[in-house]
Design brief:
Length: about 775
């Protein structure tokens, strides 16, 4: 991957960032004054119940929204379209506040019809907040951009497919198209989508994993021969110790709080590792535990909170490994000698590496005292079975791959892989992002590509394609002329907002498959099409009757999801039907039975059963109410690596301390009242924020050193690796419990600070948790 440009992002990007930030930023414009105060209450609890009631009332879905709580994440209902946390079959009400917000946002009775587009030009809509765009409601029919009027106008489905097919067939190479997905696709639609791209002739299949967990997949594949974690919910129920790294559980995977509360009640040790001490890392009252709710009885979900320096997690893990090796000098049984001898490679070299790493180096890079690291190491030593879970706070750094491998190193020392109650457990985000990868959304040819060609009768390209960052680069240099976005809000999810927007505007055609209006419909190519699709909650009627689709959760469980509601419009098509429509228009001579797969999704699953490892007997196995788990060889200590063993990593200790003490390391994150780029309000309950999004959280001592008082306006400037600078102006500085040298703020507002050149050389992920910034008080 190379970057040879010198972009200079302006402070104001038309249609993206206002000249003078509005209170609420990308969220709704608010009338009340902003405020900030520490949050001392339990996570979830009555605050979550109140929030759910508010969103149900605002979206006028009190009855149907309440009903959704009883069918969401149940075997006969639909899977939550939010996070990928596994369904707990033992719970009657297995949902969370953010899940209810997500489905209610989708089930809104509001509609965006053709008269809306007739009333508003794209130029006018570009100045609306993103909240206001999505709050207009569900899209109802296909629309095409009319340059003469600067408006979207209706287009029939056949004409829309023909327009897309003509554009794709007219390219000089299939590699001039990019087929993106946000992680929303079902397994069936994913497989059909990658089949379309590969039969068409390209592996340009960028996805949100390129920005989120790419590092996890590469690290685990190198260490244990699988790109996934090895744990399931039963393992979480058996673990003696749980280390939760780089994740805000209360907002990003709220249903995890149930597992954490259960763990502490049975005596397991729970350690949270994150620069910020989040509400979900202290105490919780889980709403479905009615007695605790009634008595306001909170349960601790943490025995220890470790505020590591941004990027210092590898140093912490190595320090804990050092504690283990020191203990082994007097008690060799703390190491699993048989496992290390029979199942691992490079153990002795790793032991030497740890011995050669000084405590001074470890504590400096971790930003922690030796005593705190030793305490964490002792928790690990005292536990017979340990799980280590992590999210984007680990992966979105330069050394994300090395850090995940160091996590795996620590687990290997005591045989904490391939036995119950132990193992690596990455926390995935979007509901089927893991299933997307399993079923073929990958810019690299999957290992089963020969089988795909054999079963489907096609010839897939073998050359690697473009990932997300390279696709944006390709838009600028002319390599990508058509962009198809299957869900999501690409322009706001991607890094370097202005540069990404400029790239999209250079394309010949952008195609957005969506449920609601968003910013990516307004930042488009010379031609643009919006294709509205069914939501996860809606009935999908095809020729063979009501269809169900499957998803894979973060712990490799595959289960079926069946929508229950009447579609928002008769004009909506399923994702399967939309992909097939594009395919038939693009590949008129194809022998693939596209329409047959749409008529009956069982036919698609029969093909997937022949191609995908672990999906044998797909349709039959779905009859199990809980679905089935994809076999994980590493779970059985079958390590499919070149060595045939679990490999210790010998990565050097990275230097994560800025050379200039004036530089702060900024991490971007969601607010609590937000899911990905969808912002429900300008509040962040768990961080005590009301009516404000354009802010930066700072350590109190860092504020004092810069002469800043609470609420002062600051200008934030980042310097990219290519030397270019980006500045966001008039963000409020707020004190927060952070380590010195660390800062935090919300995405998508702060994505504008992340240069296109600022990606990890290990994973190619944008460095969204490692942005070097300087602050000055605003003029």
């Amino acid at each position: 991957m190379t970057t040879d440009h010198q972009p200079q992002a302006p402070a104001h990007v038309p249609g993206l960032l206002p000249d003078v930030p509005r209170q609420g930023g990308f969220g709704p414009v608010t009338d009340g004054a902003w405020s900030s105060s520490p949050y001392h209450h339990a996570a979830a609890s009555w605050g979550a119940a109140k929030s759910v009631g508010t969103i149900l009332f605002q979206q006028r879905e009190l009855i149907r929204g309440t009903h959704s709580m009883f069918v969401m994440n149940h075997p006969t209902g639909y899977d939550c379209p939010g996070c990928a946390w596994p369904d707990d079959k033992k719970l009657t009400l297995d949902f969370c506040e953010n899940g209810v917000k997500h489905v209610t946002w989708e089930m809104t009775p509001k509609r965006v019809k053709r008269d809306f587009f007739a009333e508003h030009t794209v130029t006018e809509l570009a100045d609306w907040t993103d909240f206001d765009l999505e709050d207009q409601g569900r899209l109802t029919e296909p629309m095409v951009y009319d340059e003469a009027s600067d408006r979207y106008v209706p287009i029939g489905w056949d004409a829309a497919f023909a327009l897309i097919g003509d554009a794709l067939r007219g390219l000089s190479s299939p590699n001039e198209a990019a087929f993106y997905t946000s992680g929303r696709l079902s397994n069936e639609a994913t497989f059909l989508y990658q089949l379309l791209a590969r039969e068409y002739g390209t592996n340009n299949l960028p996805d949100c994993s390129n920005m989120c967990h790419e590092a996890s997949g590469r690290a685990l594949q190198a260490s244990i021969g699988t790109g996934k974690g090895t744990c399931d919910l039963e393992d979480w129920e058996e673990a003696d110790a749980l280390f939760i790294m780089g994740v805000n559980a209360a907002s990003n995977a709220p249903r995890m709080l149930t597992a954490l509360a259960d763990a502490t009640r049975r005596g397991a040790q729970v350690v949270h590792i994150n620069p910020l001490v989040e509400a979900g890392a202290t105490k919780t009252i889980v709403p479905h535990e009615m007695v605790d709710m009634a008595l306001f009885k909170a349960t601790s979900v943490s025995d220890m909170n470790i505020q590591v320096r941004p990027g210092g997690d590898l140093a912490l893990m190595r320090g804990m490994a050092k504690v283990v090796f020191e203990a082994a000098e007097s008690d060799p049984t703390v190491l699993d000698a048989a496992f290390l001898r029979d199942c691992t490679a490079e153990f002795e070299a790793y032991r030497d590496l740890v011995a050669a790493t000084s405590w001074d180096e470890i504590t400096a890079q971790a930003g922690l005292p030796e005593s705190e690291i030793r305490r964490a190491g002792q928790v690990y030593l005292d536990a017979d079975k340990t799980i280590i879970a992590w999210c984007l706070g680990i992966t979105q750094h330069e050394h994300g791959v090395d850090t995940v491998r160091e996590i795996t190193n620590l687990l290997l020392l005591r045989g904490n892989i391939g036995r119950p109650g132990a193992g690596p457990s990455p926390v995935r985000g979007h509901s089927n992002v893991q299933g997307n990868r399993t079923c073929g959304i990958d810019h690299r040819p999957p290992p089963w590509i020969d089988k795909l060609d054999e079963v489907c009768g096609i010839v897939s390209p073998r050359a690697g394609g473009l990932d997300t960052v390279n696709s944006i680069e390709g838009m600028h240099d002319g390599r990508v002329k058509v962009f198809v976005g299957m869900g999501g809000n690409f322009v706001l999810a991607a890094p370097d907002t202005a540069y990404t927007a400029a790239g999209l505007r250079k394309t010949d055609l952008t195609v957005q498959v969506s449920t609601k209006l968003n910013r990516s419909h307004l930042v488009h190519g010379r031609a643009a099409v919006i294709l509205p699709c069914l939501g996860r909650t809606e009935k999908d009627e095809q020729l063979a009757g009501l269809q169900g689709v499957t998803v894979e959760d973060a712990m490799s469980m595959v289960h079926i999801s069946r929508g229950k509601r009447r579609p928002a419009s008769k004009e909506l098509k399923s994702e399967m039907a939309i992909i097939a429509g594009i395919a038939k228009a693009t590949l008129p001579d194809s022998r693939t039975p596209w329409q047959s797969y749409v008529d009956d999704y069982d036919r698609m699953r029969d093909v997937m059963a022949q191609v995908l490892p672990g999906f044998e007997g797909f349709n039959e196995r779905l009859k199990n109410p809980g679905g089935f788990r994809i076999p994980q060889p590493a779970r059985e200590r079958d390590f499919r690596t070149p060595s045939g063993r679990a490999n210790f990593s010998l990565a050097p200790m990275p230097n994560v301390i800025p050379a200039d003490e004036d530089v702060l390391i900024l991490g971007t994150m969601r607010s609590h009242d937000q899911w990905n780029t969808t912002i429900y309000s300008a509040n962040d309950r768990y961080r005590g924020i009301k009516n404000l999004r354009e802010l930066i959280f700072l350590n109190e001592a860092d504020m004092a050193a810069r002469g800043l008082a609470e609420g002062d306006f600051v200008d934030i400037t980042s310097t990219s690796r290519d030397g270019s600078e980006r500045t966001l102006r008039r963000f409020r500085a707020l004190k927060y419990d952070l380590p010195r040298g660390a800062a935090a703020g919300y995405m998508p507002e702060m994505n504008a600070l992340i240069g296109i050149a600022d990606y990890s050389t290990q994973s190619d992920q944008p460095l969204m948790k490692n942005v070097a910034v300087r602050l000055v008080k605003s003029a």
